[in-house]
Amino acid sequence: MTSQLTDGSIPKIFKNEECVHPILQVTDLEETHSKNKDEETVRYRLKLSDGKFYLLATLNRQLNEMVINEEIKNFSFIKLLNYQKTVIKNTDFLLVSNLESVSTETAKIGEPTQFTNETEENEIEIEKEQEQEQEQEQETGKEQEQTTFKTQPLETGITLLRNLNTYNKNWKIKVRVTNKTEPKIYNKNGKQGQVMYVTLVDSNGDEMRATMFNDNVTKFNKVLQVSKCYYISGGMLKPADRRFSSIQSDYEINFNNYTTITLCTNTSDLPKEAYHYKKLSEIEKTQNGMKIDVLGIIAEVGELIEVKSRTGMQLKKRECILADQYMRISCNFWGEIAEKNTFPDNPVIILKGANVGEYLNKKNISASSSVRIILDPEINEAQEIRDWWYRGGGKKNQEQLGKTIGKSFSSNTNWIENDRDPLSNILNLNLGGGEKADYITSKVTITHILHDENNPVCYPSCTFENCTKKVTLQGSHWVGEKCNHRVQKPNYRYNPKIRLSDSSSSIYATAFNQICEDILGAKAEHIETLKQQGRNDEFNEIFNKAVPLEGLARIRITESEYEGKTFKRSILSSFKPITDYVLESKKLIQQINKISEN
Amino acid sequence: MSHPNSPHVTSKYLSNFQGKTVRVIGKVGQKQGTSVLLFTTDNGQIWVDRSNNLQKDYTSPIVEILGTYQNNSLMEIEFLDLSENFDFELYNQMVDLSYQLKDIFF
User: From the candidates B8, B86, B93, B98, which should be mutated to test the interface with A, based on the most A CB atoms within 10 A?
Assistant: First the structure.
């Protein structure tokens, strides 16, 4: 019974924290009468408890009915829907304007005490004690774990960056400067000013950006040096703006006239660098105009070119491709950054502060002078990308693209000899995204052929020689919308969606007549007859019998747009069930050896 | 033929499996009393002692023997006839790979 009451809801209500429709118990329900100008008003006062704590409450008069007809009684469980918290004579009251009866009960749950300001302080004390007890329990009998930055005891009086907020003014942080921008001059409302940004990292590995303006730029530019450590206090906190900063912190600090910065020599607990970044796949989900930090390898470097901007200025640009094991993205460097960096030898980089953009429906990133490039960061994920690159990862993708692009439908009769591609390549390599269709050869299993009401398996087709276009019944004849032929009776041809799966992914591909006849072992006409005659069991049996079927698939991929979204369309252009196990095994061994070689 | 822990081996790996049960695939060669010579896929040879399984005869030139390796010979427990088209080269590569990539196979 106690589990019905919403645990911890009274403290939440007291602190004005979010608590949706908690279930509470009514206790000490009493009727009060008050006379006001000849009108006698009846009000009900009660206590609402969550089993541990209670608050005093009063029901709005519109709810009196519920007490009168005994929907609400003493000890009842109710669902609190709407209320207002007020303070009357130093006591907190809930004015309940809407509730729902849950159940009638016969006893008070627990021994709830009134929740007040003092209760909260006591709670915190008790929690702290419990935590300490738990910690002590964990330490005894366990080996001392390696100390990481997170569990090292804080220097007394130092606030962690993640604990800074706009309420507490007396903070002191101990940080290392990992980046400092050049002072930048700007014009605002006719006045000229200068701004400078630094990136800070603390002993917890968290990052935060700090800004300073005008005189403070001059003042602190002399003091703050990259890779040195400082104690800093005083400054204004404000919410971070993702359009200008990619640093993952809720706040930014503005160093102003109240800020003091002193050099710190006891730097053992501060990391040299904080590697915060996202995978390239995150770019897809990031809004245009936002800044992002990403990790990738420079797969291709373009020449330095000059481009004319909208305002007529000549801008320097270098187009590059940033890649990881899963995708490639266009990365354009501008201005000085483009000039200075030629990225020889395909370095792995962390790019901090790149701008997310879009061109022709494809996401890209651009980097101007405000970005920071960390070359070959010493982290595991960077090493993984480097290993993948050395094994021919990036080049393989290109090779595969080269092999399959442009091979026409009928001329490639030796498609079975191709390397097997995983289905996941369709998305990872963005096949079909170019002008021409792409093809892949994959070893797949046909797991399902859609054949329900929403997915007709065949269509009526024109019977004119060599014409297979769809025809529709118009009066007594069947007419083709696209071919304009008129026929008495249509043929039926297959075009179902077939589900193909391999260990990397699954896709739906459309398959046409010949392939389906082979797979299902029945002509489309027969299927259509079964369907029209309502012989559903036989109809379904044909489809269920055919799967699962393992085989080699030749898939043609294109892209199309619908309601603003692009998606892939796959056609199963050939399918050969696996019969030659020797060949397949040889192919597998080939692929394994290619990977093991490197 | 359910001996879950008997790995496939070729002659070069046999020395690691003294006293253990293994599977060996090979071409049937000459007979000598109750023993048969088996030519393995890595151009090796091993004598198979058939004394415990004499009631059944090999019907194919290529067989898989499940047996215990001891004293330089394979004591046969069971055998399986394989197709004449069995690809020796492929099988040999597979066995070598399974030792190269021990973590996946064992």
Answer: B93
Phi/psi at B103 (5° precision): -60, -35
Arithmetic mean of pLDDT, A385-405: 59
Would you state the CATH architecture of domain B8-100?
Answer: Beta Barrel (2.40)
Q: Domain ranges for chain B, please list them.
A: 8-100
Nearest residue on chain A to B89, alpha-carbon basis: A586
How many whole angstroms separate alpha carbon A475 and alpha carbon A461? Answer: 16
What pLDDT score does A510 carry?
A: 93
Say which range, A153-162, A426-435, A578-587, has the weakest mean pLDDT: A153-162
CB contact under 8 A, B101 and A596: yes
pLDDT reported for residue A395: 61
Which pLDDT band holds residue A566 (cuts at 50, 70, 90)?
confident
**B94 and chain A in contact, CB less than 8 A:** yes
Interface test with B, best of A588, A597, A598 (most B CBs within 10 A): A588
CA nearest to A366, candidates A438, A291, A453: A291
Amino acid letter, B60: S
**Which residues of chain A are within 8 Å of residue B90 when distances are taken between CB atoms?**
582, 585-586, 589
Helices within A40-103 (DSSP H only) = 64-68
The pLDDT value recorded for residue A433 is 78
Q: Residue A154 is inside which H or E element, if any?
A: none
Q: What does the pLDDT average to over B15-42? A: 92
What is the ipTM score, two decimals? 0.79
Distance CA A284, CA A357 (A): 10
CA–CA dist A516, A549 (Å, integer): 12
